[in-house]
Design a protein that fits this description.
about 400 residues; alpha/beta; seven-stranded mixed sheet; four-stranded antiparallel sheet; globular; binds inosinic acid; binds magnesium ion
Length: about 400
Amino acid sequence: GTRWPLFCPPVISSFGSLSSHMPSGPLAGMPHTASGACGGSGLSHLWSFGFGAFSGYGGCRHTAGGEVPFFTKLRLVEAFQRVDAITGMTKRKVVPPSFHECRTILNLAQILASRSQLRLITMDGDETLYPDGANFTDTRIAKKIAALLQRGTKVAVVTAAGYGYEVARYHERLGLLFEYLKDANLSAEAAGNFYVMGGESNYLMQLSPSFTLAPVDEALWTSFRPGCCPLDAQRLLDLAEEALRTLSEDLKLPACILRKARAVGLIRKPVNEDNDESIFGFVSDGGMHRENLEEIVMRVRRVIRDEFGPQCMVPWSAFNGGKDVWVDIGNKAEGVAMLQGLFQLSPRECLHVGDQFGASGNDLPARVCSPTAWIANPQETAAVLHELLLV
Ligand code: IMP
Ligand code: MG
């Protein structure tokens, strides 16, 4: 029968609703990253919060009662004092704490609480481990990942990038990391602690003793989510494709559609770089203006919700990737929850690190089932890993 994770999160299809449950007051709009006092793993959670919501699945894509739980206590005072010692924030008289400073305090408060109990760290790919669209090259991050794996912490890249089980495609992105781990003479057992969840929650691979990825038998992990009808998933993608096409024509984006088995994307058309000067002031985004991509995400979500309603049985996510827009079957809430089920971990033993916790990003769904840290670039990821290792 179905084996649920210790903590069954409600699976959210998009996070527009989640953001409406963010705190109001001084931290309104802040990353609701740190996850505090619920104690996390209790079975009571499973029934009162998770299972009830999960039974509605796509229909209950929002948390039951609309609340995002805290999973650990937060060491806010200690974090504030450390950040203040670096920034001298409390000496200022005119400029208030910035969004960036508050984000850093919350991240540190979460890390201080998580590091002694951490057993699974999930990390986004683009802009978290490597710059958008680029491949992994950062040896500082590689060294820290090696240290985590060696001490028995599971490390999983949970990325929207989905290439089915074509492991060569993931090797293209992460190959240098694997070479580093090999050169560091990581034991087979330590290497086996590394996983990649591709396509949000669709394809799980594990690092083998020969430092190549190998698919994990789906019977071992897909039972941690309710099944979804393949025909409904295809219908959802057809609808999303049509909406993406129409919206991009309306907004005159220089874009084309890329359809995959479990996703549909709106990506930039190959263009003649010599003509870029003609798009005055918008050269760096190549005509794929952030504001327009945001508009498309919000409208395509609306189209899907209107058609599939609140009882939608298909998990999905629609997000702005910075230079593209994607609608995926699956989401990072499911991706992280299935790993928690596979390893039999409770949320307080996990941490998801990502760059996309804004209203149109794809890391926010992970927040319903895991403590999180919101980073802005791979340098910050290196700093997060450094802090986590200081136990
Ligand atoms: P992430 O930040 O690691 O989750 O990766 C997001 C980026 O992966 C998107 O912005 C896309 O550029 C890229 N990508 C490649 N394939 C897919 C896919 O199938 N779905 C969504 N994003 C994809
Ligand atoms: Mg990212």
